[in-house]
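R.M. (postdoc): so does anyone remember the format we settled on? I'll just put the structure tokens first.
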């Protein structure tokens, strides 16, 4: 006999949501499983009847060996689960007529072992298994492996729901992130709605549980590389300690200093030096090792142990572990699949990547916003290209740069090829009051235009876009956080050719002519291109080099605190546990 079915009937028995390609595939697999019926026939085994059932649970669940429904209403209060998670639990069991997912005819399914392995493996993702009732899942899995121990009806119901809760939390956090971005970072995250119930139902019947549960994890190659790197750094944290170095060294190549032996020991510990002779001389061997370290940390590779280099050496292995964890979390905030074709700009490494058919087809250096005027982190879709653009100067720059320039030099606007407009009409400088909101200044197209010869537009609330620049020398710098927030491109012509590649009328000659025309020309893309501006301070190169970039905007520091708080205050193991 089933209990609590009235409330279950009111729940989400069927969820209709937009589906990604991966979700659609899961739905097809789910449909095939439903048609095929149960994976396991009813089995009979000799049961041991002396397992004690907690008295407080007696009568809570009515479930027979014929897989009759679980009374979810009675279990809700006992398990103390959040309303958000419980709604997903109800929807999941509605797919199976409220019957157990992880047990069949009174016996545990072998999929429990796969779920347990997936939960314990979450540490490799920077997630804490305790947040997913990892200890209780492990206990259930251990007892399930001991076939001589029988399960009572009450134990089956409690254990089944606990396993389902763990699986729901797992897939939800792999797909959306464990720490919900706060208001300041709300635009960092974007994920499609997913029918988690269908995924859990499928995983409980899958030949291999973990691949199904992990199907919604980020698919970008960086995620897997970060997981592997985190594993290595955790081993380092358990077995090594990097010695601290004095940060006051002022030694040039060929010179000696008392701080140099400490630098040698630090680089020896991290594997950048094969041996250390204790010398105080900054010799060629040490310079080469320092240069490798500098390149791995986004620093100027001059081989000199300067302030930034020594400061990076004093970041502990534990801090690097936390940095890897928060970078993994940021990938989970993004859609699990960025799409076959997209543009990705990573601010801390000052790099743009264009991907087509899942292949990297174009890469370039960029200049991003300064710490005072940071480039915002968000995603959008590129819609148009503008050749020979005007630069409509933001009012903040008008106040901070243009007006002070005019105060010093009345010919400032003419020298910068700028003009003043009121209500869109050009007017004489002497006739305007810059406090009038209808007055603005723009720079005419041309070689000196701050946007260069082309810009790329995508909708956003920040008035941010990608653009060319006449200041090409800035791309030779390692630290390129120098703009007012927009992203300057090293290879704007190549990007223009790529985004217009499917519009054959835009030949290379026509693109170049539009750039040189001096007349602003807007070109709408036939098909928009997803663009993601991200903040990944750890990037793994194809050759395996780990780049730890500087936290130029302080997002690592702030978000690591939020992330740590989420897990140190993780929910305790469920109050109701199976008596094992």
């Amino acid at each position: 006999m089933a209990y609590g079915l009235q409330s279950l009937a009111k729940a989400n028995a069927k969820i209709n949501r937009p589906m990604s390609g991966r979700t659609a595939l899961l739905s097809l697999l789910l449909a095939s499983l439903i048609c095929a019926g149960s994976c396991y026939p009813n089995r009979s085994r000799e049961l041991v009847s002396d397992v004690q059932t907690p008295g407080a649970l007696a009568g809570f669940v009515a479930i027979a060996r014929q897989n009759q429904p679980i009374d979810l209403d009675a279990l809700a209060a006992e398990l103390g689960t959040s309303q958000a998670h419980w709604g997903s639990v109800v929807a999941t069991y509605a797919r199976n007529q409220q019957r157990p997912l992880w047990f069949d005819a009174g016996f545990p399914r072998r999929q429990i072992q796969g779920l347990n392995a997936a939960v314990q493996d979450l540490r490799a993702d920077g997630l804490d298994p305790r947040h997913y009732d990892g200890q209780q899942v492990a206990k259930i899995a251990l007892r399930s492996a001991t076939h001589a121990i029988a399960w009572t009806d009450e134990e089956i119901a409690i254990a089944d729901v606990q396993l389902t809760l763990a699986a729901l939390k797992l897939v939800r956090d792999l797909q959306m992130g464990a720490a919900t971005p706060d208001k300041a970072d709300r635009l960092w995250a974007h994920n499609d709605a997913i029918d988690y119930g269908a995924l859990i139902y499928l995983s409980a019947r899958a030949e291999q549980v973990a691949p199904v549960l992990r199907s919604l994890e980020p698919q970008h190659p960086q995620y897997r590389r970060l997981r592997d790197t985190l594993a290595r750094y955790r081993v380092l944290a358990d077995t090594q300690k990097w010695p601290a170095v004095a940060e006051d060294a002022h030694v040039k190549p060929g010179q000696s200093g008392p701080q140099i032996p400490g630098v040698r020991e630090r680089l020896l510990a991290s594997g950048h030096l094969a041996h250390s002779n204790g010398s105080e001389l900054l010799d060629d061997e040490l310079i080469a090792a320092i240069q490798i370290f500098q390149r791995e940390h986004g620093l100027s590779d001059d081989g000199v142990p300067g302030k930034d280099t020594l400061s990076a050496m004093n970041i502990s292995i534990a801090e690097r572990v936390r940095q890897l964890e928060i970078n993994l979390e940021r990938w989970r905030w993004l859609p699990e699949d960025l799409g076959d074709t997209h543009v990705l700009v990573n601010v801390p490494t000052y790099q743009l990547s264009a991907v087509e058919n899942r292949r990297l087809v174009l890469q370039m250096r960029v200049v991003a916003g300064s710490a005072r005027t940071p480039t915002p982190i968000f995603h959008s879709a590129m819609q148009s290209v503008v050749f020979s653009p005007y630069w409509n100067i933001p009012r903040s720059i008008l106040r901070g740069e243009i007006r002070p320039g005019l105060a010093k030099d009345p010919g400032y606007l003419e020298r910068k090829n700028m003009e003043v407009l009121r209500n869109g009409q050009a007017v004489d400088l002497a006739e305007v009051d810059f406090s009038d909101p209808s007055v603005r200044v723009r720079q005419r197209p041309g070689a000196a235009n701050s946007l260069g010869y082309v810009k790329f537009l995508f909708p956003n609330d920040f008035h941010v876009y990608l653009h060319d620049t006449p200041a090409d020398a800035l791309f030779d710098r390692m630290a390129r956080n120098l703009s007012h927030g927009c992203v300057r491109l090293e290879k704007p012509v190549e990007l223009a050719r790529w985004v217009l590649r499917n519009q054959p009328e835009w030949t290379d000659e026509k693109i170049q002519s539009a750039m040189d025309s001096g007349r602003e020309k807007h070109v709408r893309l036939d098909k928009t291109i997803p663009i993601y501006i991200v903040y990944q301070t750890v990037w793994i190169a194809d050759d395996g080099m780990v780049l730890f970039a500087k936290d130029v905007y302080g997002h690592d520091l702030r978000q690591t605190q939020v992330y740590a708080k989420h897990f140190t205050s993780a929910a305790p193991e469920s109050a109701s546990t199976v008596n094992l």
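R.M.: ...and that's the designed sequence above, right after the tokens. Also worth knowing: The chain has three domains: 5-218, 242-315, 337-561. The longest strand covers residues 521-534.
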